[in-house]
Every structure is written in structure tokens, then in C-alpha cells.
Amino acid sequence: MKYGATDVRQFVVGVMLGIYKPEPAEEIYEWAERVLRIPATENPEMAGMLWSSAHSPYVRELMRWVKRPGKGEFWIRKSSQTGFTMAVLIIICWMIVHRPCPMGYAINSIEEAKKISKIRLQKWITYNNLLEEIGEEEDSLNNLTFFFRSATVYMLSAATTGDWQNKTIDILIMDELDIHEHHEGQGTTVDMARGRVKRSKNSKIIGFSTPGDTDQITIEYKKGSMDEVRFPFPCCGHVQAMKKENLVFSTKEFKDLAGGYLMDKVKSDAYIKCEMCGGRLFDYQKRAAMQACEYVATNPKADPAIRSVHIWDAYSPFVTFGEIAVAWIQADGNPELLEGLYRRNFGEPYERTGAVLKHADVLACRGGVVGTPTYYERGHVPFIPIWLTQITDVQGDVRKTIKLAICPKGNFWIVDWKVTLSLAEAFDWIDVPVIGPNGEELYCTEGFCDEGHIAKTIREECMDRIQVDSLVPIWPVKGVDVENVTELVSTNFRYIGGNYGDEEILVYSIADRPFKWEIIYMLSQREKRLKGGKPVIFLPTDTEEDDDIIAELCNEHPYKKKNKTTNKEKWDWKKTGPNDFLDTLKYGIAMWTIKRPLLRKEGRAA
Question: Of the residues 310, 345, 380, which one is the last residue of a structural domain?
């Protein structure tokens, strides 16, 4: 075997410093299971315990691949929380001790690079006394660059091209690839990475990410082997991958007589169906079964130097089959939630289809003719609602208000609407009843009002009503137009000001985009949703074609906006006219997501 000048130089330096050790024969994960204890910052529940690959046995193949001689790339298209970040930090620890060389860890921003360095990697190194083993001091651990005598670790920001210049790196790890910036004139960070690892005969790139708007991870994944992680199912021993198409939770055993989901049973008993014998793999069996897992290539046209694999939440030790199933049920019919489900839970790209609504789409929501169950006129409702509310939107000097009823099936019935210039008039309208199926008077139980540009005034007016027991309460809401949200509806106490000084009031914050997408699909795919038993919107039978509410429900739509630098497209929203009634409906549907679980506990909602 021939050795290059770099190898000889590192050997000589190691001997002279007295720190040279032959590379151990054991695999990286075997070394880690023997040596590395988990820091509390990594997992408080497992702090102090020896790390074990048994929790995520699919990371073993990556660790085997790192030790093998030769250049290569390994791309991991994954869901969230699968343990690969921890795995690559362990690989860095092993490299520092047993194969010192220039290493790089690139993530989307300098802030994230600092977090990974300080909160995670440095803790692994210091907690396990690795500096003592290699004869280094703790001051070698600068926040973004670790300077050791025979190795350097660079924590890099994908957003800063200067971080990448003039660095030769033997192993480069690329985290959160799909939110890395595109650099004009230099291309993607993948292009830049390949330029940094040319010299060493054993240089390697490891990249992993959940699919995002750029979907760079899928591009790289498809160049490689596109491995499946397969293992013998306990039912018959057939070796197979876990596929989302085989996740079973929608058969009769998981539903009540009315066809609704028995969510507790879904959460506890969802299973993966064996593709050979039809047997059941339950979540409690997967850890033991996966210990025999193997990577099986599925791409006959793969670049021989590129490995790639897809891992989704079913494999994760942190997520159960039931939790995946519940998330799938909750996302069904909502493209915003489905996008999150596919990307974060399935580890797959998701392409939405937009729609520009026409007046005909909205008019199709009118109730049926006289004598049919869905016939109703403005101000009336053809059933006893399980929830009746009023929502007001504030735009300029105009206040637009709707009354919205929810039927036992979960459909949204717009009962009436009103345009006023006075907030007081809009609020007083909540005390005007609607007429039920037998002529009875039905009253709203609560209301909501958009804060708009007069938050202080809205909060004062709402508090005035809330403090009077005989009045129906109206709560302030505000829309939040962001792409990625952790909560669809959140609550915060906000200062009221004015006559109330430092007193606070509960304010609901609504993630705009998921609910706008839901309205688009409710209106544009009405017939399909009716057949599938999914919620739809109803308008009174006597709604006129020229009523303002018809136009306003059509006056905002999604469109693809191209980024001139990256040439990638992403969804944005365009207003073509007043959309106040659309906003009132959006807030009503959003608040139902909070109200529904409460009514379900009472047995009143499906």
C-alpha cells in the first residue's frame, strides 16, 4: 500500500507528539457504545448512560461507511428526529481521537453553527474527556473552530461564502441542506463542498436534511444508491422496508359506527402491515426487529461513489406509529399541514396544487332547494348548531362580520353577514339571534374580533364585554403571516392600555396560511370533500350572485413566486380585491380547531 505525503506527515507528527495510535479494528458505533456517555444537554432522560446504536440501528451503516477507504458521498433524506445529527457528532468525536484531519460541519446559519458547537459537540467532547485522550486543553475548543495539534474542526455557516474559502477538508458534514442559501456565481453549498474535499484520498461528504423548498436533498438522494432500510418482520421473517403505504389505521376496527376515528385506538394500535403475509408489526416490536436491519440499494443507475438512503418517522425511536397516524388524520385535506406531514414526518417532498377561485366555486356552496336538508335562508340555520359564533374583521373604517354555525358533521355554515362603520354596532349584533329549524331563537356563545390596526381599541372593547356577565364575550384575534409555524392557534396575554392600564387580556394568534389553504380546498374541491366526508362550507340558499361575500371569498389566492437568485419557486399569496369576509371565515375555522376538542370530550363533536 502506498501512502501519500499528508498521511506520512500526520504519522510522523503523531509519533513525535506521542499521541499516535493505530486505528482500532472495531466499528465507530462499537467504540462509541464502549466509550461515549450521553451529555445531559443531548438527552436529559439518558444523561450519563452509554450511547447505544440499538435505539437507531440504521445509523450503523453510515458509521461503517465512514471508516472505509476511498472518496465518497452519503446523502440522507430524512424526517425530523431520527438521530442522525447525534450520529455525525459521534463520528466527529471518533475522528478527533482515531483519524485526526481537517473536518467541517456546515449548517444554515452562523447562529445554528454556534448552537451545534457549544450546546452539542463541545459537550460530547468534554463530558467524555476526549481532550485528555488526545493531549489537548479545553481552550482548543473555540466556538466556531477547534484547533488541535493534528486536527481542526470548522463549524461553518452555509450562508457565508467566506467560511468556505481556502479550506481543505477531509470530511464535510452538511446539516439542514434544504435551507442552505444559494450563492450567486458559486452555486449551491453542495457545489462548494465538492470543491473543498478534492485532495484527500479518503475525503467524504455527509449530507442530511428534511425535504424543503429547494429539495436539494432529493436531487442528491436520487444520484445515489437510494437505499431502503430493510429488516425481517417478526410475523413471517420476510425482509422488507417500512413504507407509509403499509401503515394501517383507517380500517373498520379504528372507527366508530358513524365512521369517525377512534383516536385513542389509532394512537395505541396503528401498525405496519407485512407485504408478504399481511401480519402486523406493532410499534413495540420495531426496535428489536430493526437490530437486523440492512441497507438495500434500489437505484440501478446510481453513481458508484454516492450512497443515499431515505428514513422516515416509522424508523425513529422518538415517534410511534400511532403518533404518525394521528398526524396524518389531522392533516388530511389541509395542504399546509400535509406539506409539513410529508416533509417532517415522511421525509418526502410535497408539491401542492394551487387554485384561483371563481364565483361559481363559491356559489356552489349555497344550500339546497326548499324541502332539502341543506335549504336555509340568511339569518336561519337548518339544524341545532354544536357551536354558533360571530367573527368581525377590521379593515380601515369598515367592520365586516359573519355568524358561523358548526353542524354535528363538522361543516361550516355561514348564517349571516353584516357591514358596519361602527365597532359597537358590530359587537351589538352578536346579541341578535338567528332562527333555528323550528323557529326557535339561537344565540352565539362567544365571538372574536380581528385586532387589525387598532389593537388597543379592540382589546378595550372586548374587555368591556368580558367584564359584564350578562354579555356574550368577544375575544381579540390577530393573524400571523409566516411560512413555518409550530402552532396553528396560540394564546398570549397582552396589555390592554387605555382605561385598563397594565391589565392584560387573552389574545388568540392565528397562523394565516394553513387556514387560507384549507378554505381554498374547501371551496375548490367541494364535491370531492363531500364524498370523502371532509368538512365543507355552506352559504344560505338565497345568497345573491352579486353579494359582496361571494367576491371577497375569491379575492385572495396562492401563486408560485420565483426567487431570482436560486431560480426556485415557493408559494405566496396575492390579493385581487377586498378579502375581509375571507378573513372572518379564516378566523372562525381557526377557532374551531380549539373548540372542537372540548366539544368532542362532551360527546357533541365528531
Answer: 345
Q: How confident is the model at residue 17 (pLDDT cuts 50, 70, 90)?
A: very low
DSSP state of 24: P
Q: Is residue 311 part of a domain?
A: no
**Same domain (yes/no): 122, 192:** yes
Query: pLDDT digits over 76-90, tens only?
Result: 999 998 999 999 999
Block residue for cell numbers 372593547: 461
Q: How far is CA 63 from the centre of its chain?
A: 27
Average pLDDT, the chain: 90
- Maximal CA-CA distance, the chain: 97
Neighbours of 464 (CB within 10 A): 15
Q: What is the pTM of this model?
A: 0.73
Quick: pLDDT tens for 493-502: 999 988 898 9
Q: Are residues 386 and 517 located together in one domain of the fold? A: yes
320, 281 contact by CB (below 8 A) = no
Strands (E) in 83-227, as ranges, are 102-107, 145-147, 152-157, 171-175, 204-209
Residue 467 lies in a domain: yes
Asked if 172 and 273 sit in the same domain, the reply is no
450 shares a domain with 553: yes
Cα separation of 389 and 279, whole Å? Answer: 48
Distance CA 32, CA 63 (A): 10
Query: CA 107, CA 145: separation in Å to the nearest integer?
Result: 14
Of 190, 223, 256, the residue at which a domain comes to its end is: 223
- Domain membership of residue 326 as a residue range: 235-293+320-345
d(CA 217, CA 109): 18
Residues 501 and 581 in one domain: yes
- Strands 412-420, 398-406: pairing is antiparallel
Beta-strand ranges (E) seen in 142-296 are: 145-147, 152-157, 171-175, 204-209, 228-232, 239-241, 247-248, 271-273, 280-282, 294-296
Q: What's the number of domains the chain is made of?
A: 3
Do 267 and 384 fall into the same domain? no
Task: Tell me the C-alpha distance between 525 and 364, whole Å.
Answer: 11
